[in-house]
Amino acid sequence: MNNLCMGGGGQFVSRDEVALIQTPQSTASWKPVPHIDVINSVTKVIEAHKWQITKEQYGLVREGQKMFGVIELNNSRSPDHKRAIGIRNSHDKSFSVGLSAGICVCVCSNLAFGGSTVIKKRHTSGLELTELIDVAIESLENEFLITETVVEDLKILYLKNDDDARCRIVRAAEMGVINSSDIVPVFKEFKNPQHEEFLEPTRYSLMNAITETVKKYTPQRLDQTYLSLNRAFGLDGNRPELWK
Predict the structure, then answer these.
(1) What number of other Cβ atoms are within 10 A of residue 48's Cβ?
(2) Which domain holds residue 36?
């Protein structure tokens, strides 16, 4: 469920290739952060928490002006999903340093950036990158635990029947999680999922049906979807709005 999507001329690259990108000169009010410094700072904090990286993907856009990445970790409490941290950075003032974390992370070169928690910071001369990331990930560790606990509950909470599923999907559209035109596609994915682990008619399978369907959305729409999805299924630790 963790994705790095590259489009619009973007290309997948290795960490070493990211390190080759030159950083522009800073000004009095703007201090661009080297892409590799962002990656290395995240890695340093991950290691300090005694987590291990199992997979990492990076991408560059516009001759290296923008960098995106997804880092998966091995310390999830369930074998069915991975903890992940999404990162992004720019050298052209188009967006700030960003961190996204959860078990459902989407990072796109077209600026979709979602997860259970998103933390962003503008480039300024006073930015202390490692300190920022350390504070961010410290707060995100609790978010990981909350999300994983909720997901385990979603796996054993069954929908009553097809009508119950239809009702929840319509409600999801009313909440802005999905477009109304996707009510039928979500239901079809729920009834006939692409992956066999979602064959059981649980809330977890319904959430997957939604995330599979919304992959086609625009970046701005995806950001809204991920935020609404967290509230709808209670991934933020609060009562799930889809069942209120």
Answers:
(1) 12
(2) 3-149
